[in-house]
From TrEMBL:
GO MF terms held by the record: dioxygenase activity; nitronate monooxygenase activity
Lineage: Bacteria, Bacillati, Bacillota, Clostridia, Lachnospirales
Database matches in PANTHER family: 2-NITROPROPANE DIOXYGENASE (PTHR32332)
InterPro entries per UniProt: Aldolase_TIM, NMO
UniProt keyword annotation of Oxidoreductase present: yes
Protein name: Probable nitronate monooxygenase
Length: 362
């Protein structure tokens, strides 16, 4: 099985940065992918991604100073991940556009030496403003359509005279926040996402020529095994992003109860919910989701996470729900997951998972 496609796998080159294995571990917040997981993935030759969303939830003083604790934690976890990587792979961050302190998160990640910044949960129109072209950090938008890709690349070229260093194309089977409408997600089989990927690859060629640089395209959302990786590469992608499978690893930063929720999940208890971010999201059905369906959960404390959030209007506090889950209360917290989580049945290690996904490339 391995020999059927490992010859297609090539190292991922993003400007002057190189990852031996073209697999990006997707960013997962709150606290699911921090330094332990990202460092382990980078050590294997991939790209380990830290989510900055409320990353400092367990820092002393977080209850009173979320912004300060998050910036402190960004620096700490990038440093720790790079130490764990032992000079291998790349270490980066995922920063949500919807965050209240988006600019500060980007600038702190750059100053801390992040190799890459991946940005979604909204269109990162002003991301280049916070990242100097002379710095080492590479930037990538998360897109789900050719239209979004065109909007971002056109704006970056017009306003900043630069383009993306790479592009992450996230499909409808991804976990967490999704760039699709509820109606589209209800009819996923009707979405020609392969066609969308090909169009995005064609779209970025204009900017490759204009800026005389290669812009790798990374396919994300529902990537589970070698067959999925092979399919993405056949479409013309340069690599893949995988998130959910890395939750069920010893190195994942989540609690054991969180990991157990993944390996005991079935396809039937995965559903689409409405997030206070304003986007649909995919999560495991539990007592928390059942309660939210019946009535709004009053927000007793604001954690200052989202730029556009009115605590009086949102159905629940997403920060509290995600922190409760990552700490182990998986019935009364929000557990984001990908569409294929029901296929995960055991806890493994990052080393063994990367071996399974990349075959004998290593």
């Amino acid at each position: 099985m391995i020999s059927t496609y490992t010859s297609k796998l090539k190292q991922l080159q993003i400007g002057d940065l190189i990852a031996k294995i073209p697999i990006i571990q997707g960013g997962m917040g709150v606290g699911i992918s921090r330094s332990h997981l990202a460092g382990a993935v980078a050590k294997e030759g991939g790209v380990g991604i830290i989510s900055t969303a409320q990353i400092g939830y367990d820092e002393e003083g977080f209850e009173n100073d979320q912004a300060g604790c998050n910036l402190k934690a960004i620096k700490k976890h990038i440093r720790k991940a790079k130490e764990l990587a032992c000079g291998n792979g790349l270490v980066g961050v995922n920063i949500m556009v919807a965050l209240k302190n988006y600019k500060e998160h980007v600038q702190t990640a750059v100053a801390a030496g992040a190799d890459v910044i991946i940005s979604g949960a909204g269109l990162p129109m002003n991301l280049p403003e916070f990242v100097s072209r002379t710095c080492r950090t590479k930037i990538a938008p998360i897109v789900s359509s050719k239209r979004a890709t065109q909007l971002i690349l056109k704006m970056w070229a017009h306003r900043y005279d630069r383009t993306a260093d790479f592009i992450v194309v996230e499909g409808p089977k991804a976990g967490g926040h999704l760039g699709f409408s509820n109606e589209q997600l209800a009819h996923m089989d009707a979405i020609n996402f392969d066609g969308e990927i090909r169009q995005i690859i064609d779209c970025k060629k204009e900017y490759e020529q204009r800026y005389q640089k290669n812009i790798p395209v990374i396919v994300a959302g529902g990537i589970f095994d070698q067959k999925d990786i092979s399919h993405a590469l056949d479409l013309g992608a340069d690599g893949v992003q995988i998130a959910s499978r890395f939750v069920a690893t010893e190195e994942c930063d989540a609690s054991e109860a969180y990991k157990e929720a993944y390996i005991h999940a079935s396809e039937e208890n995965i559903e689409i919910i409405q997030s206070p971010v304003g986007m649909p999201g995919r999560a495991l059905r539990n007592k928390f989701i059942d309660r939210v369906k019946r009535a709004k959960l009053p927000v007793s404390k604001c954690y200052n996470c989202l730029e556009k959030c009115s605590p009086q209007k949102v159905p629940y506090c997403i920060t509290k729900a995600l922190i409760d889950a990552v700490r182990g209360d998986v019935e009364n917290g929000l557990v984001f997951c990908g569409a294929n989580t029901g296929r995960i049945h055991e806890i493994t290690t990052v080393h063994h998972l990367m071996q399974e996904l990349a075959g004998d490339l290593q």
